[in-house]
Amino acid sequence: MRKGSTAALSFSALMLASAAMSPAYAQSVEKKDQQPAAETAENPDAIIVTANRREERLQDVAGVVQALTADELRRLGIGNDIRNLQAAVPGLNIANQEGNIEIFIRGVGSANNTELGDPAAAPHINGVYIPRPRGLGLQFYDLDRVEVNKGPQGTLYGRNALAGTLNIVTKEPVLGELGGFVQGQIGTRHSYGGEAALNVPIGSTSALRFAGYFDKQGSSFKNAGIDKTLKPAGIQDNVAGRVSFKSNINERLSIFLMGDYGQESGTGYPGANIYSAVRATGDRAEDLPMRDVVYRGWQGDLDNVIWGVQGRVSYDFGPFTAQYLGSYRKVDFEQTNSGQDGIAWEGRDVSEDGVQYDNYSTQFWQTRSKAQTHEIRLVGDTAQRLRWTVGAFMFDEKQQVGFLSLVDRGYCCYSGTEFTMPDVRGKSKAAYADGTFDITKQTRLTAGLRYTDEKKSRYGIGGNWALVLGGEDFACCFATRLGTPGFRPSLLDRPNFNVGALDTPQELANFLIEGIASIGSRDTLVDQIGSIAAGTNPLGTCFVRSDIDNGFVRCPANNPNNTNGGFSYANLTIPGQQVGSSKFNYWDWRLVGEHDLTPNNMLYAKVSTGHKSGGFNDSFDADLIPETFKPEKLVVYEVGSKNSFSFRGRRAIGNVSAFYYDYSDQVFQDLTTIAVDPQTGNATGFSLVNRNVGKSRLWGIEGEAILPLSAMTRLHLNAVYLDTEITKGQVADARAQDFSIGGFAPLIDLKGSRLPLASKWNLTGRLQHTVKLQRGSVDGQVLASYRSSFYLTQYNELPVVFATPDGTVTRVETALEAGFPDRQEGFVTVNLGVGYTSEDGRWRVEGYATNLFDVDASQKALVGSGINVRFLNEARSFGVRVRSSF
Predict the structure, then answer these.
(1) Is 680 exposed, middle or buried (0-12, 13-18, 19+ CB in 10 A)?
(2) DSSP code of residue 337
(3) Which end of the chain is more exposed for a tag (fewer CB within 10 A), N or C?
């Protein structure tokens, strides 16, 4: 289902960028894999991150940044699945809808995955911006670390860093060292995989690193239907590889280059529609078997190929260093959603009497993206009293997108939806300056400013396919089938996208047929309207067949308008022309004050801003310019303290921060009129659009403690309290949208609702312990995460009011009665890990368990008329890894 930014949330995500790593530090990271976890944590405040676009100790950064090393990610059971990262980072929510990674931080994020949407948390790889987070999880191998920066980062990171940033930092080549590792693993759900890396020195100043992985996993869903030939959604078959080159040509000049390739295959990532189950049973989602899906019709299929190159060149001029960062990335994504008929609740008849298995309703997705980024930075001498950075950034993306939704086996008529855009463009240019000045040895002031200019445009088609075919005595209407086995849509391979001048029946019929690359074995559409397209019969070809016989319509026999066996009438509708553009510019800024009470205790206060890109809506009238919406804006006020101290004779960390978010120009989906009765002037057609009609406020407190309980034991605690409230937002209620009256939906006031995906309490605890043996060591770790209840949509289970356009209320139902419960109960997840490392560090064996208690939790929901689709977390899994380093 194509869904725009279902309400509101600009979202936050994560990132941190990485500048050139010194050879000494790189080598220490390379050898970290061979050390017991507790030993590497002996000095936890020495963690290096790049939150301010330069390497700093984590404890020197004024703000909330969390970093996990590759070793921690693996041992904590996070592995190669980016969604598992949220178990270790409180306030983070990561979901996967149709292959698109959605990142929310502290309740701020974006669920708009269309070509008109943008993420609200900026993902990066090695500090280079990634515009399309599709397939982002393919980068989760041979890493140095992952950095999550919470809160807006508009000044240094620019576009779509509203909620924060997530930076995936890959392992760089190590100079002067020949080595690597090989790893294999097996696990439950028929999963197995492998990972390997090889570091090859080239003389004393250069090195290459080759890395790759493959991962095969079974699905956590179950086919509860009777057609057992269909595989459930969620089966993964992923492979990826990269090659990196690093050269310190001399003391001043360094180069880093990387090329990567990845492919996702399997049965795709659609969720499960629980609407019918809720309506039939009255049960809430947590009481339903959400993983027992009744599959029918289409087999889900995913093919996502991504490749890219990036580079970084640095030259030290003495007073300053000049740095260039650039990248080119290409995405080629296709997915056919698994055909399904909801879930199998207790007592449901899933036999052929209860389910129409000969039903091929589904959705086809296609996305192609070519994006390039270029950034030039000048960085002043970091040893000076004033440490400054100035830079310029350019982003250019060309997209092509296709979407076709088929509704097979209708009682009458035919209606489908297609949005196919062969030309979608986005451009962004920015200039920024940022500097830190030491007022005294203990007090610093940082100020930054960024100006951004953006443009977007697209050309294509969007709207409904519709066939209304009349029977005897003009009776309505004949059924049409489309999408049966063998069907393939044209989408981006259509020969023509110019529909502005198409208006004759022959032209309309030809355009519909051109949308079909191959005809399904039991499709009827071409047989019914092919004669219209050919010009041989303007009323098509009428026939009755058992699978399209609705029992009350017959082919015309004696109708004088009927020629050559045609219908009594044939009304055809095709998608309309989609042409739109928007231009925006905005300023971001930050002001940070820091004061060192002691060398180990820092106080800070900061104000920072971020924006998420604006855009425009679908076209509904060829003579009207599409409605635009402005960028969302977030201003955050934060105070905090970072502290290192002695705990039981060892180094420990204790940090705390308090923050307040002022969220304005927030985008919610609202209703607009798209058709008017010319006689009465009354609206007869409606559609949802994105508008800046919302405001919200958020405040909270976050605390972190890293405590070495002994020489070989470490406890890491993190807690977030978050209070969110929508303070403005009156919009159309998509849950009550009634297509029998043109798609009208009454207004609902969201004021007082909590932001979706925002738990009041997020708690994580990590306990790691190592025992030294005579010939090696054994280590174990426990990761426990608690999230209090949260809502999945902005509606917060408010009552559903059904009404007519004149304001007459026809009925009122609770959210549960209407099929739209959206409250996820609080839950706890636990990951376990245990490993043995040989004395020389060359061999390691690990066992792991993720989601130990097999908690089913919804991480995203799509709601609309008759739709409540849930996207779930990963189910419980166990596995064993063996790793050899050399």
Answers:
(1) exposed
(2) P
(3) C
